[in-house]
Amino acid sequence: MNRDEPSGPILRAAGLVKTHRPEGAAPVHAVRGVDLTVARGEFVAVTGPSGAGKSTLLHLLGGLDRPDSGALWVDGRQVDTYSEARWAELRRHHIGIVFQFFNLVSNLSVADNVELPALLAGRSPRQARTDRTELLDELGLTGKENCTPGELSGGEQQRVALARALVNSPSLLLADEPAGSLDSKGTREVLRLLARFHRRGQTILLVTHDARIASAADRVISFFDGRVRDDAHLGSAPDRPAAGVSDVLKLKG
Amino acid sequence: MRAAARWTRAHLRAHRPAAVLIVLATAGITISLLLATALFAYATDPWQRVFTQSSGAHVWIHTQAGTPAGSLAALDEVRAASGPFPTVRATASLQPGGARATLELRGTSRRPATAAPQVVAGRWLDERADAGSTRGIVLDASVAHAIWAKPGDSLALSGFTAPLRVVGIADSAEVPFRAGETPGVGWVLPRTLAASDAGQDQHGRTIGLRLGNPADTDYVVQRAVTRLGADQITDVSTWRQARADAAGDNSLLARLLGLFGLGALFAAALAVGGAISSRIRGHLRDISVLKAIGFTPGQVVRMFLALHLGFALLGVTLGALVTQFLGPLAPGRIGDATAVWRQLPEHTWLPLAICGGVVAFIGSATCLTAWRAGRVPPVPVARAAAPTAGRPSALTRRALGLKIPPALVLGWRGAFHRPLRSSAAVARLAVPLLLITIALGAWTTVDRFTARPESVGLAAALTARSDTLDDPAVRQLLAGQHRLTAYPGAEVQALVPGQTGTITLRGLGTLARPYPLAVAEGHAARGPDEAVAGQGLLELLDAHVGDWVRMTVAGRPHVLHIVGRSIETADAGRVISTTLDTLRDGDTATPTPQPPRPDFYNLVLHHGTDPAAVRDALTKASGGRLEVRQVPNPADQLSTVRAVAAGLIAVLTLIGLAELATTVGATVRDRGRDLLALRAVGLTPRQITAVIVSATAFVTLAAALAGTVLGVLASRWLIDLQGAASGWGTGIAQRPAFGVLALVIALAVTVSAAASALPAARAARRRLADSASAVL
Amino acid sequence: MRLPLLALLVGGPAHGYELKQALENLLGAAYPQPNVGQIYVTLNRLEKAALIEGEDVEQSDRPNKRIYRITDAGRETVDAWFEETTAEPRVRDEFFMKLALAPHTGTADQITLINKQRRQYLNTMRDLSKLAASEDRDNRVAQLLIEGAMLHLQADLDWLERCQEELE
């Protein structure tokens, strides 16, 4: 799913700062000076306690919110000065976003929901339909093209959201607590799918507080109180004892 | 583009009933406005209406008896001709010695097709019935009014031995009857005409010409004169003259109607704008999702704009088509008005202008809300994060402690805890109610003219005057009637310094028996040289109450002290009234203790007495030598205001209902979000329904109170404004009865409670799972 | 190890190697591989405690096998084991000891400790996921065991976050 594009990190952030000022309450420093680089094909997870500002960071990286200060490059382009309209165009072609609460358009069918970004990107309806059929088959949703989101289970809705995010083969897939509203079965499904697309080369950045999902990533960034506290590549420590599992399963006697 | 079309199509499919409702509402508003304009044209320009209805003739040529007037019909510019009719001049009076009028009798067997007289009372001539022993005549309305003839009356005509019977009264678009100047028109059968033994010089011929282009009038007149010869033509009249003579003081009416129309349009725009913004607010989550997917703000704005402009265009077109084709089929005045309106010259562009205006208004309302929709952040924020609840106020806690049902208390809080949002909702709902109250105020003011005319300066319904009887005889005759009080009066034209025209100086009543004027400021004339002036006069002379004014009557000066302002509906208020004593004081050369001699008597009838009956009795008692006339009451002209006010109230109710639907929808949506919290508190679904219903009812109550109170104030201010502008004076306004206002408020609250009951019940029973996703 | 072996013997007599096989089959690869020597030692101890009784069996071409059978006392012990509940909050934790003592040494940094431990837990979680994927889907017992471990890990990670909050 990678595009033929100049090499270099797909995402680079320098000194992002964002402060929320809700009315009648103290200002919340959601993001305090974050530097971040995501290489092509990486699977990055951002973990941290709730309220730490992870979602805000994701919104900044996806252009859904404007940073108070700092610079941001997506695919080599400096985007922190983009207007909302330009961001929208960028998102159409290069960024797919999956949300915790699925956020499907409630009065569109599944097929329409998935085809909408494709039509926005300028593809013909026939082409959009082909892409949509392909993706839905891939995700195991054949036969549900004409259902409305209200008729689907949580797991199915999230898969539709994933299909919608991926229909334009974006360079970057952003996910905000993708399994936050799902049961354990749904979580496993989402994990499996994310792993599958990652194997094909999709760059993924997701935000989660679920350790199982975080551990599926190559790289885990610990986000705490608006700042990055740790940036670890998993599975790279060679001196991990094989009996590490048994340490957890100590029995009495 | 394709994406926008796809989304719009799916959106329409999902919200079909709401879309249909919007289109219907827009169509309804358009129909109401078009019908209102038709009524407006119908009511404010009666001459035009009659001209169009009767296919009036632009030029009337009166010639000698033998002139070949019919040849004029062959002129190129003439589209159709009325006549030529043989005519005979005659003098008519209801009773010998009664009011006389000169008539031009026209002989015609059938009702002419061009310049067809519109029968308003009685019937047209019938070949069999009206040619026998009793000959029938149909009178033109202007002359009938002047001599007070009505169908069934006997008309004594010079040149006829037996009196003719009036079988009908008809309106025509010709120059109206004016005593001494223009003869009135009476239609008779040709046989009747032949029976007249008037001299040859009284015979003539009349032809009416309807032109293809009204601008050719002067040219056609010239051609006619040249063709027939100036010596053959006795009189020529054109439609312009007729229109000028017929035009009454319709400016007040026209202004009122125009104001009403604008008000209704404004209210409609508000209602539609409110509905649209409410719908968009209900879709905020979808909008932010669309933006997250990749719709630019401009695209979102354009999508919503296109969608709602599409609705507007569809609704307006539907409304215009319905009015065009089904309007004339409507019963009563509305049908007539629409049928006539179609033929009026302004009809080509006026409906288009109205439709365009509606679309423009809706468009501008949509623009604002669409722009706001474009500014929705692409971050789908959980709406529960918005501050919906604060700590319950002390009032709430006390109310709950007092065992007021919790549903009411929560409903109150729900209605008003967001002051900005709730005041906007209250304001939008209050506007139609305010306009309805203004319409009611206009209605009751017009009622005042008919029910209590003495409060608007029209105490006397009749005036009695005699040329042949002397004053004591007149007084005796008047004393013979029981149900009236007679006040002596005289009227002269006076010159004031600085004015080229004259003003009317009236002396009514005596110091002993003062005339009941409607004094708005100051007090009535009590002493010598005191007078009360109308608003128009005060403006003309730039005087105020308390000033002294000097005027000259027939060379003699009068100096009067203006001690009060009265409401004067005659002569645009340029009247100054004093007592007869003061008026005659300056006249009599020798101060004699004789009572002053009045020119006429104003007859103030006791309540409930029929003026026509009194008039008949007096005329009979005096043998026709006492001329009794009815005092013109502007209420006759303003009666259309009542019909218009009723129509306006209907339109505003429609608009108010549309507003209400929006408010109900918004309240249900807002309260529905608190569903989980309310359930957790322990309210049953019925109580939750009650919360939502009471929230809506409270908002409506606040709006109704605000609307009626402001409406009463505004109505008084507007009517006073009109009164001051027309010279009648301020103080004619009459506010609607408290009972009526209370009824309006009660109705509004009941309707809103009823309208919100069903959606509230449905919302209260929604499954929790649905409401969770609705929160975000 | 004692009581699981006893419980297995309730089902019928067996010898040491059979018991080892049974344990492996039951618990799957997640469970640490039971050491054969450890099993025989435990069986010996159990015999000495008279909870099981052993019996040699002649074999033609191999050394004698010893078949074990459970005694009444052993059965009672197993019953009692099932009766009692396992209750003990995990207060003995080496990591927490390290965290608490770090400031006193002056050489170790608490945040670094936390980060290192977190990485460890995440890697373990990763391995558990891989294990769960490779293990037979129908072996419910094994899958539950793995899931239990993952949940414990999640709890440990959440606790690490709390520690980080408090120490910041």
TrEMBL record, chain C:
Gene3D superfamilies: 6.10.140.190, Winged helix-like DNA-binding domain superfamily/Winged helix DNA-binding domain. It comes from the Bacteria. Residues 91-168 form the Transcription regulator PadR C-terminal domain. It holds the Pfam family Vir_act_alpha_C. Residues 5-78 form the Transcription regulator PadR N-terminal domain. This is PadR family transcriptional regulator. The lineage of its organism: Bacteria, Bacillati, Actinomycetota, Actinomycetes, Kitasatosporales.
